[in-house]
């Protein structure tokens, strides 16, 4: 088994081993993974954090040993909390990194960082303030940064920055936590899931105080939440049908 670490800011994870293949997700700086299959130009990987699988370009990561992989995996995660910061390599070259990058492999990569960071689990009350760091970020399928993010990437990154693990896909996230019967039972930071006419869960957002919700839909935005679902004050209509509310923390 081979192992790797992302030594660039944002690397696309694709469905197939091709630059034109569908973007499934992204690997942020410092994230580690197992290499399941390696071809001349592409590698199929499995991320350590959420076990997500896909293909990345061989030029966009650095191979590491199993010992290094385990050392990072077994240490307390440290994440960057600046919207954009820079790491510096041994040649004094700068690399931009985004909010939520993993900093545990800095010494392994001979990189230095002097920006802000966070580690360990935070109180649930911190979830909403973290979510506001992504406010007005454009929706981008497969995205995980303030420069483009999807609904499940948004919830995953917000929880990750507070020390909690959510899976990547919205359907997977809906299997986590404890289901609540009514909106009135929920607290700020709980997750609300929404389905389509076929009953398939397709959307997720973070519940706020006073029946508001923050979610990625066109952009990361704040809308009203009621027993029917998400109500947009802009369009004067319900945009999503409520399926279930989950308490993760």
Rounded Rg: 18 Å
Per DSSP, the total helix count is 4
- Count every beta strand, where a strand is a DSSP E run of 2 or more residues: 20
Estimated share of beta-strand residues: 35-45%
Biggest pleated sheet: 6 strands, antiparallel, barrel
Instruction: Detail the poorly predicted runs.
Output: none
For the largest sheet, list the strands in their spatial order. Answer: 15-16-17-18-19-20
Task: For the record, give the distance between the C-alpha atoms at the N and C termini, rounded to a whole number.
Answer: 34 Å
Secondary structure: helix percent: 10-25%
Indicate how many domains the architecture comprises. 2
Structural class: mainly beta
What is the N-to-C order of secondary-structure elements (H for helix, E for strand)?
EEEEEEEHEEEEHEEHHEEEEEEE
> What's the pLDDT, averaged over the residues?
96
| Coarse shape | globular
CATH superfamily of the largest domain: endopeptidase domain like (from Nostoc punctiforme)
The CATH topology assignment of the largest domain is endopeptidase fold (from Nostoc punctiforme)
Identify the CATH class of the largest domain: Alpha Beta
Return the CATH architecture of the largest domain: Alpha-Beta Complex
Walk me through this protein's architecture.
- The protein has helices spanning 66-73, 127-131, 151-161, 170-173, and strands at 2-5, 10-14, 23-28, 32-38, 42-47, 53-57, 62-64, 78-80, 84-88, 94-98, 117-119, 144-145, 148-149, 178-180, 191-195, 201-207, 212-217, 219-225, 229-232, 237-247.
- The protein folds into 2 domains: 2-119, SH3 Domains (SH3 type barrels), CATH 2.30.30.40; 124-247, Alpha-Beta Complex (endopeptidase fold (from Nostoc punctiforme)).
- A hairpin with a 1-residue loop joins strand 17 and strand 18.
- Strands 15-16-17-18-19-20 form a 6-stranded antiparallel β-barrel. The chain has a 5-stranded antiparallel β-sheet with strand order 6-5-4-1-7. A two-stranded antiparallel ribbon has the order 2-3.
- By secondary structure, it is mainly beta.
- The longest helix has 11 residues, at 151-161.
- The chain contains 4 helices and 20 strands.
């Amino acid at each position: 088994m081979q192992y790797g670490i992302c030594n660039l800011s944002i690397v696309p994870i694709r469905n197939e081993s091709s630059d034109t293949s569908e973007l499934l997700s992204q690997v942020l700086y410092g994230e580690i993974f197992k290499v399941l299959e390696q071809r001349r130009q592409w590698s199929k990987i499995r991320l350590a954090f959420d076990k997500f699988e896909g293909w990345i370009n061989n030029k966009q990561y650095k191979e590491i040993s199993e010992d290094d992989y385990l050392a990072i995996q077994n240490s307390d995660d440290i994440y960057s909390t600046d919207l954009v910061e820079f790491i510096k390599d041994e040649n004094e070259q700068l690399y931009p990194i985004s909010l939520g990058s993993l900093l545990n492999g800095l010494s392994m990569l001979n990189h230095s960082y002097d920006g802000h960071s966070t580690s360990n689990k935070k109180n649930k009350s911190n979830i909403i303030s973290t979510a506001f760091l992504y406010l007005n970020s454009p929706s981008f399928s497969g995205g995980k940064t303030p420069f483009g993010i999807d609904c499940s990437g948004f919830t995953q990154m917000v929880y990750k920055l507070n020390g909690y693990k959510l899976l990547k896909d919205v359907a997977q996230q809906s299997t986590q936590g404890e289901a609540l019967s009514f909106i009135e039972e929920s607290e700020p930071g709980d997750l609300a899931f929404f389905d389509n006419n076929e009953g398939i869960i397709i959307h997720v957002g973070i519940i706020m105080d006073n029946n508001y919700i923050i979610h990625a839909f066109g952009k990361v935005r704040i809308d009203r939440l009621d027993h029917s679902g998400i109500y947009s004050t802009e369009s004067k209509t319900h945009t999503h049908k409520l399926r279930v509310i989950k308490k993760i923390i």
